[in-house]
Amino acid sequence: MNSDSYFQMILKEFKKHKMAVFGVFAIIFFALLAFSAPLITHLTNVSPNDQNVFNRYLPMFSKAAINNNDAEMRLEKYLKANPDVVKDIQTFQAKHPDYIWDEEVEEWPYDFLYFYSSIDEFKTTAKNSPLDGVQELVDLEKSFYRFHILGTDELGRDVLMRLIYGARISLGVGLFVAFISAFIGYLVGIISGYLSGTLIDTLLMRFTDSLLALPQLPLLIVFAAIDITKLPLLEDLVSKDSESFVKMIIVLSLFSWMTVARLIRGSILSVKEQEYITAAKAVGSSHLRTIFQHITPNIMGPLLVAVTLNIGNSILWEAALSFLGLGIQPPTPSWGNMLFNATEIIYESPSLAILPGIFIFITVISFNFFGDGIQQALDPKS
Amino acid sequence: MFQYIIKRLMQSLLTLLLLSFVCYFVLTLMPGDPVDMMAAGNPNITSEDMQRLKSLYGLDQPAYKRYLNWMGTLLSGDLGFSRTYKIPVSDILGPRILNTFYLSVFALVLSLLVAVPLGVYAAVHKGKLTDYLLNLFAFAGISIPSFWLALILILMFAVKAGLLPAGGTYSVGQDLEGFALVWDRIKYLILPVLSLSFMQIGTFERYTRGAMLEILNSDYIRTARSKGLEEKKVLFKHAFRNALIPLITVVAISFSYIFSGAIITETVFAYQGVGKSVYDSIKSNDFNVAMVSFMISMIMVFMMSLLADIFYAVVDPRIKY
Amino acid sequence: MRLLFITFSLFFTLISAQAAEKPLKIGISQEFETLNPLIKQMMATTYIYGFVNRNLVTMNEKGEYIPMIAESIPDFENGQAKFITENGTKKIKANWKIKEEAKWGDGTPVTAYDVKLAWSTALLDTVSVGEKKTYSQVERIEIDPKNPKHFSFVYEEAMWNYYQLGSFYLLPAHLEKKVVKEHGEKVEGYAKNTLYTKDPTNPGLYNGPYLIDELKLGSHLILKPNPHFYGEKPNIKTIIIKLIQNTGTLEANLRSGSIDMVSVLGMSFDQALSFEKKVNLMNLPFNVNYKPSLVYEHIDLNMENELLQDIKVRRALVHAIDRKKLTLALFEGKQQMAYHNVAPLDPWYTDDPKKIRHYKPSKRKARKLLEKAGWKLKDDGFRYKDGKRLEFTIMTTAGNKTRELIQAFIQNEWKSVGIKLNIKNEPARVFFSQTVLKGEYPHMALFAWISAPESVPRSSLHSSSIPTESNAFSGQNTGKWNNKQVDKIIDELEFEFDSEERKNMVAKLLKIYTDEVPVIPLYYRSDVSITPEGLKNYVLTGHQYPNSNFAEQWTWETK
Prior knowledge:
The structure holds 3 protein chains of 3 kinds. By secondary structure, chain A is mainly alpha-helical. A two-stranded antiparallel ribbon of chain A has the order 1-2. Chain B is mostly helical. In chain B, α5 runs antiparallel to α10, α7 crosses α8 and α8 crosses α10. Chain C folds into 3 domains: about 140 residues, D-Maltodextrin-Binding Protein, domain 2, CATH 3.40.190.10; about 120 residues, Dipeptide-binding Protein, Domain 1 (Dipeptide-binding Protein, domain 1), CATH 3.90.76.10; about 240 residues, Dipeptide-binding Protein, domain 3, CATH 3.10.105. Chain C contains 17 helices and 22 strands. In chain C, β17, α13 and β18 form a beta-alpha-beta unit. In chain C, α3 runs parallel beside α5 and α16 runs antiparallel to α17. The longest helix of chain C is centred in the N-terminal third of the chain and has 20 residues. Chain C starts with a helix and ends with a strand. In chain C, about 50% of the residues are buried. About 0% of the residues of chain C have low confidence. Chains in contact: A-B, A-C, B-C. The interface between B and C is large, with 55 and 63 residues.
């Protein structure tokens, strides 16, 4: 069979599943969003940690003045680049000596920046000033307003931006966990499947089954409460900022490889019986070669399905643990901890809690549809 | 059959024992202990006070010794003493086990009652719009974060509409009897059960549909149909009964998911169950309560899977042990 | 006409009777535990204790000590307290008298033997008492067997604040004495067999205005009036206290009417602020009550750190934080900015700029100070000296939202003067037991001290209280500030019996404190509680003695 046409056949089947196609697009959208987050910050000049404490809990679609520090910095930059404006302002100041509000003013006009909060007063007086530089400054000041499409949170941070950066964490956790658990599951499954019938197989499968039977959340809670930086191996590897992220990945990976292992083992058992493997063995192919050259390509499909479903599940688990306060630690935004922070004020600012929930929901459902689509494409009968 | 059950029970017991040690050990890896917690709430506690209490509680001993001590008292029938509440563990957990039992059983029954008919309906109407919509619904169930759903339910039904209580286990301070008492308990159960069942409904619906489809496509049903049997009879007498078998396994496995879900649901709804005490005790480092609630949840899960296996044997006479 | 009047008045009495019958449902978000007064540790249990049990003295909302179950507070003026000298040490002996009418809930009179039982049981090695000092500072108790309402405390040290010491709850001797006798020798034997655990609704265990009618740990309790209470008869006939840990659910319960009010151990400050806005906007029938408290939020600086040893850097740190803006922006001015460790509620408080040093919020000044200290700004926006970046790590309790907000705020403020701040938070139990109590944080620790009015800051400021290996980490001078002058003031303060002179000494101490900046003061926390509009005579205390100590005065408004 031509592999190209095989792929096309699958693609054709996959396209029939409308929701799966939607899922793929949604995933691509979120992935792009997550990937280009720094670029978005660069372009819009809004970072997820920019605070604006006088504009907390703003509703959706509101406009707010940026915080004083940022405004001062921008003004300073502008004035340093435009000495003409500085000159104009000095003239203006000479006419209005009452604009020195405090004895601490020393180096006008830079000190003007320090009293940025009085800008409104300055604006009214400067309105009719014939000096271009003063007008320019007033115009510049207009750009110091920021539009918050989805409002602001408890520190006046832009919610949209935090959601975008949250996508990085949620998708990151999902992908890492899925791949690590796929790897562990693959190893366990292959060993178990290849050695089927032996004691090792029995032990491994018993272990896998009992882990599967356990209620996961209590275990996750216990493991998430451990301080991983105290573990000797990880001490040097983990930086302060990424500690909770790495911990989340490790903890979730520990408890999500079992389904993959079962699946791989099952596939190997069925593939093992097929003729071509027996043939390969007869030719004298080594065990490892048999596994990698013949068995692995045949189980790629089910593996992909399992990985996809695992991504969705891991995102849900991360959110659940963050919701219990054991997940990603602030100030790093994750959808889970944004939701956790917002539960307290859900009645005053419901959008803060509803939005991350919707993001989680759409992402998880997209991965689930995607997995379902692949499954159907691979096995059109079901 | 009897021998099989005994064998399974022994296996479960061994697994429990092993797990209890692992859990205990992991708990000791958690930073701090109950005495440290006291220091957090009380600036007047001196280091001498802490040292004295630690040796009084035996917290200065190595983990394995503490585990053996704990196992010893457990085997003598004493569930131990809660460090948080400073009362015997059995006093705390007794009523909570029942509460969690109500919650999970209601959630399980509700999700089966909703999911199975929907699954059968979807399978029979495969490819139609209703099937499509039901599929969407099922996926939504699997993908929705349950705690979020719980919050939205509270927001809608308790705060905005004022129809149901926002949280709790039952109305405090009212001496209710008979039907009023039952209704009161049910009122407090509706929202938690709803939020807990939603995910299970999705899972069960998809499994029922899948199993039904497989059987409807099988030769055996085709034969039955070709024999001219009534469609209803084909569906319920032949197809549905056979589809039930894979569902039982799913239900047995789902019990551990329900229990995990119960932790979150009980926490959000302030419902007095074992799930909440698992979370609370782990957070407050209350070893004895954590270990006992943990063991209870394991036992519940093991019992369910054993029950499922027995049920399996009853439904499918081909299986012999 | 007269008939009408009678019907009317009857009608009104009926209504008011009904109003009094209406139960008060209080929501709390913190766990409570067994109600044994010796073993209890949690704040919520102390809150509940205000309803059901009373101790010798308590503090009112003005911060004054007032007698509760004691007739009066013994002092030198009324002759009930005097100095005695035993074996060459100066001690204080104070005569107490228990109120004549004071009875336990089952009618048994409260006597000095109840005091003695509590004291002697707490001193047993087998009983897990938290703060042993509360009991051990009373050296012995003398009882007149002929008049068991009278007794004397002999305090082991002669300190002016003797009457605040040894203010513990009593144990009912008629019920608990035999338990102590039988089980007291076994480790935790008393804790496991006390009637407070075995039979918590026994009225004989309580002497407060209310008795426990029903108790479910981790869930709720129901209180009913104590018919034998010696004081004012409680107005509200049923009080229900419900535990709802999830603060979001707590608020949902308040809004849907499942609870009537939220105590001070309920909502977070931020949540209460948002709730208040909603109350004003929608005219909800609630009052949001604030009361400045004695809780002092601050940043302890590790004075052994090289960077922080430079006073210019420390002063620059304070100048760079606009604390006024912080309290305005985050707390809408409802929590007061702090100048130092003494809270406004305390008689020792002063904010006189002649007595203490004020730090104006000024980024410019901060920058200048840093320049002078040799920290030069580089292109990345941070300051460097000898190739090293001006960088600090701040630690606090993980999950405390307000503190996390403050950290983020300060991080931003310092960034604008070129200081990099790293945040590393730990779970509360680790943070306090390891990091704070052992002084192990690298630069800064953000947390709060809960103090009492006129409490001598020995344990937090005296150099002998620096936690070290050799003193088994006792003492809470975790910033390791070592100032001889301060040591001297503290040593003298404890034994200064003139209250005006004490004030002057404290002002001197605060001058040094604000000059040297061993600690960055942030703000004094406020207590916040939400009550229904109809509840009257509800006053917050703002200190460690909860307002439930005055619960018998609460009443439903009758219209």
